[in-house]
Each structure stands twice: as structure tokens, then as C-alpha cells.
Amino acid sequence: MLGAHNPRIAFARELLTKKGRQEHGRFLAEGPTLLAEAVEGGTDIEAVFVTEELRNTLSIVRELEARSIPVHLINDATAAKLSDVETPTGIIAVCVARTVRVEEFFSADGLVLILADLADPGNAGTLLRSADAFGVSRVLFGSHGVEPFNPKVVRSSMGSLFRATIAVASPAEVVAATNGWVFAGLTRDGEPLRRWKAPNRAALVIGQERRGLGAWTALCREHLGIPMRGRAESLNAGVAGSIALYEVTRPPA
């Protein structure tokens, strides 16, 4: 059984920080559901840390052992040190963080989603999940926003992260890598979503609730809006972006 000061534990703990994730190109996925989603999505899993009780009861552990993935026993105290939630699940995996170059991201036609430097990981994870639900498989994270492998992003995506093609880039990098793409930004006073028909190469750009599209504004030659009849001033990015994804992907009536 590995103790809290074991080098493998120390390495995994580094992945709880942004610096550690970026330095090592790895991230943590916690809980049996996320591990099952990671396996199904083809994510490379390098190691698993699990309590003895869960090792004896979870089928996903046996599946990972059958794939020759190292499974290390830990106690509850060590599991807590590898977790960023109040109630640790007792099973944590070290996963390889996969992203694609921005040129590859835009190499094929279709609708893509851009998170314009969103800061809130819950909103980012929600939008990954909504994109997955509505058939949008490519999601680009603005380089000045939350990172795609932040633990809360991973959790709130509910496994959709593992099925998505992910890129991270700035507006300037996107401009340099694209030709013939239409960028439509979601704004308060934009054209009603229901009137917009996405062309073959279209990017839906979602900004922050208060700061809007920010540095991505100049990239968006088209603006889309969600008409609101009530008294609420705005919708948060996760809700607004999910509505937009539904509208722009639904088939004509």
C-alpha cells in the first residue's frame, strides 16, 4: 500500500495544480463513473490509485488491471490528499492530457465550439457536456481562460471531455490557422438564434456573462442573441451556450 509520501503519490498530487498539469501533460480523473467514461473514450490511463475496499468491489478496477494498467492501493487518508472534493471517492486515475494543434482543429468542415476565455470551470464543463449532447465534437478553449483539464471542468463535463477533440488557442492563433470560417459570437443584442443557419465551416463563440466576448470580439463578424421576455438581465455562459447549441444544431422543422 502506498503512503502519502510515496513518489508516485507526490507526482499525482502535483496534478492537482495548473502548473503540474501543464508541466507533465497529465491530469486526474476521480470516481468510477469518470474512469469508465475515460476508458470508453479512449483516454490513456497511466496509473490508478484505489482503496482496498473499492478494488475488491469495482469492476472497472478489474478491467484496468486486465489492460496491464498499474493499480496502486491507498488508504482513505491518502485518497483525500489526491482529491479536491469534500467527499473523496477513493479511486483516482492519472490520465494523459490530449489536445490538438489549432490547425488540425480547424482542418475539417462542421460546427465547432469556442469558449472565449471562460473563467468558470463549471460553465466550461457544462458546455463540454452540452456540445457532446448536441453532436459538436470539437471544443476550443481560449488560452486566457480556464484550462480544459482543470478538475472541476473534468467533473462537470460528466465524461464528455473524454469524447471531445480539444484545442487551446488565442484569437490571433485562430485567425492565423483558419480560412473561410464564419465566427458567430453570442451577444445580448445579436440576431435571434433561430434565424441563423450555420454554414459548413462555422464556429459558435461563447463569452463570459459579464465581460462578453472580450478579446474574441473582433473575430466574430456575426452576432447571435437569445431573445428574453423576462426581467433577468442575462444568462450565465453555461446556460446561454447550451441553448445556443440546441438552436443551431436542431434540424429544420
Question: What this model shows, in words?
Answer:
The protein has 253 residues and is of the alpha/beta class. It contains eleven helices and ten strands. It starts with 6 loop residues before the first helix and ends with a helix.
How would you summarize what this structure contains?
The protein is of the alpha/beta class. The protein has 2 domains: about 5-95, Ribosomal protein L30/S12 (60s Ribosomal Protein L30, Chain: A, 2-Layer Sandwich), CATH 3.30.1330; about 100-250, SPOUT methyltransferase, trefoil knot domain (Alpha/beta knot), CATH 3.40.1280.
What are the salient characteristics of this protein?
253 residues, alpha/beta, 60s Ribosomal Protein L30, Chain: A, Alpha/beta knot, 2 domains, six-stranded parallel sheet, four-stranded mixed sheet, 11 helices, 34% helix, 23% strand, elongated
